[in-house]
Amino acid sequence: MTERPTHCPSCLQAGSPVDRITLKALLTGDGLRRGIPAQPRFCGTADCPVVYFDVDGGATFTEAELTVRVYAKHSNDAETPVCYCFGVNVGAMANGERARELRESVAREVQAQHCACEVKNPKGGCCLGDLVRLERGRETEVTASCCAS
Ligand SMILES: [Zn+2]
Known about the structure:
There is one protein chain. The chain is of the alpha+beta class. The protein has 2 domains: 16-65, no CATH class; 71-135. It is built from 5 helices and 6 strands; from the N terminus they run βααβββββααα. It has a 4-stranded antiparallel sheet, with no helix packed on it. A two-stranded antiparallel sheet has the order 5-6. It is globular, with a radius of gyration of 15 Å. It starts with 15 loop residues before the first strand and ends in a 14-residue tail after the last helix. The structure holds zinc ion.
């Protein structure tokens, strides 16, 4: 095993590994034409234009090459999805009571293994932690997670 760069070439923050299937599901035609890296990583830095980068070759994919808006890049934008599987956007989480209902309903689906995070959510994983953060006014760091990983 050789040491591979795991940090985003643009913002230099650590990226999280995502499955290739996530890129296959979410890249536009132009993105797909460039080829999907063997070991893609996701950059969740809010002000960084890079969404995916290649651990090996230095290729990067920006949001323009994705078919969905990326929550991690627009977490203050009401129209941006938080839960990509069951269609909850940031705006819907603004009301505390409603936010709790939505989070609970998503949690039930997650528990029933009805989610499809690896092909729906650009970060390739569960949105539940993001929902909890929004519900609590993003004050607390939570590690609520689930299914995949
Ligand atoms: Zn980055």
